[in-house]
Amino acid sequence: TITNNSVKKSVQSYTLSKSYINTMLRATVINIIYHRLNIDEKEFLTKVFNNIPFKTFKSKSKNSVIRLFHTCMGACKDAIEKNYLRKFYMYFIDSNTGNILEHYEFSFKYTEKNLQPRAQTEAQLTESTSLLLQTLEDLRRHKKLTGDTEMKVEITYFDDTPDEYEPPGFRNLPEDESLLKIIKKQGNSVVLGSLFTGFHNLKCSAKGGIFNLDVSQSSINDDTELNVKEKNPQEICFNNDKTQDDLQMAVNLKLLTISDSEELEIDCPCKLPLGIGPWYPDIITCVSCKRRCHAPCQGYIDKTFLHEKFRCFYCRDDDDNESLTFQDAMLYKLTAKIEENL
Fold first, then answer.
1. Which of 69, 101, 177, 252 has the smallest C-beta neighbourhood within 10 Å, fewest atoms?
2. Which segments constitute the HORMA domain (predicted)?
3. What tens digit of pLDDT does each residue of 253-276 get?
């Protein structure tokens, strides 16, 4: 389970660090399942870390999703122990249409056991763990997936993994059967959280469904403003020459305008100012090229999700190249605020 003691030990020991990453993978997957799928509440237990509630499964269950979960986690544990596991993918699929409704990606990085770990404190890991758990808890604001939804999973390995390796319960999948080719075409990811123990790193990101941030880049240019205008205490609309569906709300919102007319330094790939009207997103600086970017444009809702040296997507490995547009992230945060007050 997740405790202050397990956090403390994970930053001190390579073996206990690996155990902690396994624990957090399990906890993250369980809480995503809890908040997104319709599974009987009786299947879960509630625990608390740092005043943040999170769910665990009861020891025995006949539920097919929970049984699949246990198989997956056993396989992941085996692959993590061998330093083979690179990414774990979890898909929620409409069983009637075959469409991927949402998918979650878990990325892993390891250090060699005999190498000196990078500095990481108990307080830092406690904070990043709390942030991840709170982000998962915030999923409760969204309606669960309805209808016939099934769960599928895939895992990928590092290049030095033996070709014949197959973890318990899994088989090697032909490339044309993999769902990866589909999700790579489905836009940007939202980073839910990242954990770093000094020995190991786990990052969770998501696409689709409630994470879809559909704002056209082409509609925002030198001559265009995207306004959120207050019409009355119960409704607002997004205006960009034409009105989209009204969103009901129970609180007043101040005028929020995106405009590139402000004369501020622009380093971010989105080409918008570093400060946008009354809203100033967190700014992060790449340690390699010194580019200053909006945190959301690099895949982070804000800088609290960043717990290691930041490298922008120009300088990252291709494997880590994921980002949100600034406009998308702004609307994501605004929509969350609206839903919180409905």
1. 177
2. 15-206
3. 323 333 333 334 556 766 666 655
